[in-house]
Each structure stands twice: as C-alpha cells, then as structure tokens.
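Dear colleagues,

For the upcoming journal club I promised to circulate an example of a predicted protein-ligand complex. I picked one with arginine because it came up in last month's discussion. The inputs are reproduced below in full, followed by the predicted structure.
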Amino acid sequence: MTDPPTPNDSGSKAWSGRFSEPVSELVKRYTASVSFDQRMALQDIRGSLAHASMLARQGIVTAQDLADIERGMAQIRGEIERGEFVWRVDDEDVHLNIEKRLTALIGDAGKRLHTGRSRNDQVATDIRLWLRDAIDEILELIAGFQRNLLDLAEAHCATPLPGFTHLQVAQPVTFGHHLLAYYEMTRRDASRFADCRRRLNQLPLGAAALAGTSFAIDRVFVARELGFDGVCENSLDAVSDRDFAIEFCACCALIMTHLSRLSEELILWMNPAVGFIDLADRFCTGSSIMPQKKNPDVPELVRGKTGRVNGSLMALLTLMKGQPLAYNKDNQEDKEPLFDAADTLRDTLTIYADMITGIRVKPEAMRAALAKGYATATDLADYLVRKGLPFRDAHEAVARAVRVAETRGVDLADLALVELQAFSALIGEDVFDVVTVEGSLAARDHIGGTAPAQVRAAIARARDVLEKRE
Ligand code: ARG
C-alpha cells in the first residue's frame, strides 16, 4: 500500500491533514475571507486573549503558555497597527493568519490557544465585538448630526415654510418644526441601534464548533473580560445565527431611508424653481457642459447609497434564510455587506452633520410660496366653525373665497373685510388674526404643533435628551 500523494502545500493549512490534493489558486481565493475579515483583527486578538486567560485560570493551559500568548499577541497587534503584518490568502482568514503568526513567534503555546474553541464561535464573537464598536461610533455620529439639526431648527423656529401634502402647499409650518421631524426620526433610529447593541451583546465563545466543548471552560469569566452582558444560551444558535447582523443592517437601512427623504427635500428646496434654500458649494458640483449648473451631488448620493444599504440588508436576509443549523460557510459572506453598510452610514452621517451647517435658508421664497398656495384656508374654515358654522359649510364658504382670491391673484389675507363677508356674514374684523401666516402658526399651540413657542420647547427637550447621553 502506498500513501496518498502529499501535495506541496498540505502542511500550510490548519485543516489539511485529511486532504489528499491541494486546492487550486482560484478555490483558495474563492474560499478565503482574509482580504476583508482582517478588519476584525483587533477584535480577534481581544477575544483570543480573553479565551487564553480563561484556559490558564481553568488549568487547561499553563501560566507560561498564557504569558507566551500574551507576548506574541502584543507583538502581532503592533505589527498590524504599523501595517507590517503580512496577510496570506493561503491562511484563509483573519483567525488562521493570526494563529499561524502566533505559533511562528512563540511555538507550541500558539498551537494550544485553539483548545476548547472553534473558528465558528470565534468569528461569531469577533463580529459582535466589531459591531458593538461600530454602533457606539454611529450613536456618536447621530448625536452630532442632531446637534447641528437643532441649531438650524432653533434659528428658524419662527420661519414660515409651506407644509406640503401630495407635494402641494397645504398649511404653514415653521422651518424649525419641519427639521424637528427629522430629529424625531433619527431619535428612534438611535434607540433602534441601542436596542440592537443590547441584544447582540452576548458571548458566543464556548459554543466551539457547534455542540460546546469537553473542556471545563468558564464562559461567564470570558463574557465579563470582553464586556458582554451574558453568554449565548444555546451553542447551535450561538455559532449559526446572524440575526444581530441583519438587525444592524435593518437599523442602517432605516436611518439611511430617513436621510434619503431629507436629501430629497434638500434637492427639491434648492431647485431654482422652488428656491427655499441654498446649499454650500462644498456639497455640490458643477456640470462639465452646462456652465450655469450647481448640482446637489451629495444629497443625491445619500439617496443613491440608501439603495446600497438596503441591498446589504437583503443580502444578509437571503444569506440566512436557507441555512440549516448550525454553522455553514455561507456565513462568511455576512461580512462585506455588514462592513459596507456600516461604512456607508458612518460616512453619510459625518458628511450630513456638516451639510446641515451649509444650508442657507431663503425665507422670502418660502413666504411667497405660502401666499400662492392659500395655506391659511383651513384656518379660515376653523374660524367659521368657532363662530358656529358646521365644518362642511365652512369648507364650502372658504373654497368659494379661494376661487375669488385666485382669479384676482391675491392671498386670502389680502381680501378686504367686506369682500370676505360676502362668503359668510359670520366673518368679523378678528378674521385677520387667523388668516395670516403668523396667526395660523401661533394657533397650533400644543405639544407636537408648529407654533414657534412649541418648536422652541421641543428643541429644549431635545437638547436635554442629547446632553444626558454625554
Ligand atoms: N472565515 C470564516 C467565517 O467568516 C470563519 C469560520 C470558519 N469556520 C469553518 N468551519 N470553516 O465564517
């Protein structure tokens, strides 16, 4: 009997012992993840150090092994931070690259590190550690965006803007009130991220490949070392589910959707036909052919990149849906969409916080649009209701008044008292307190309403929330 042929590189793979032929370069590249999962290197080292400490405490490796591992890992961390670490596709992923280097540096202790652990629980741990950091950073960035949004809202808590329904002038709102709508959206977004963080902060290590390990490990100790709130209760679930990554991408997709809506408004508002705002040049570009153009490229890209983040969410959902328990290599595909969603959102939030400060408001244009749109028609109807007219009759009377004002090309507030009285005898001198834009705004004086006093109060509450998180 002859031994099966030994491929040239068989010795270089952590798992190649049972294999009789080498994988092709293409398959090597196809199955490797090191080109992208090296982003989790520091998390991987952190997880390994906690695991090694536990192994030493439990008497599974010696104190000398632990000291060697700590020394080796310190050197490797330095090499990575200085950009000197040589990542090898032959070593497949971040975990094996680091372990291989460790063994080259310290010998047998490096080979003992993997006792009681598998790459399956290792990678699940690394992603959670990475996401925890990403979420903390995103929460900071959301707060920065919100602070600038509140500053702009405060400066315009009494600036009238046409509020739209069906993209047609509906009723006056203040520009500050309008911006606060986005504060509320992003406040919920932040709380979603915080929730996601809470749920993912459980330790997978100890699940090993899928069933747990025969070594007397101490998972609670490792969880504490790594700042997890607890341990994953089921080993199969711990290594296989990526619901936390899906949830993270869903949070990213939702906040991007909100920012995309705001972008759409910025684009509309700065269209010369609308002209409500101007956007600082640093967020726009010109046209290579049309010299007059100033295009809102950054808001358009936020809108466009929202599609990309939605794509990440779909990719992860689809990745998961057909997988039987427990770990499958499919899961290696979770990282690129995840990283891309996080990177896109971080960049978007950073740019947006600055872009908010680059918005120049043009109140005259907003006011002119209000007058053209008969934005206070509802106020006149409400006025007649308060004078005793049933709402449907009031609606009818005001509709007639709008028709007349329209043919004359004036606003309701520009009609004389006697002219207004032709539509209802109930109309008195006090009507001019309500059909003006200021009157309309001031009347909506309740929590959630657009009255400048309410907007000011809402800003104060929002600032309070932001300060408390510091
Ligand atoms: N690179 C792998 C991943 O990202 C690590 C886990 C590999 N486990 C395995 N049994 N092949 O999922």
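Two points we might discuss: The first strand starts at residue 160 and ends at 165. The pocket of arginine is lined by residues 33, 37, 93, 119-120, 123, 327, 329, 331-332 (CB under 6 Å).

See you all on Thursday,
B. R.
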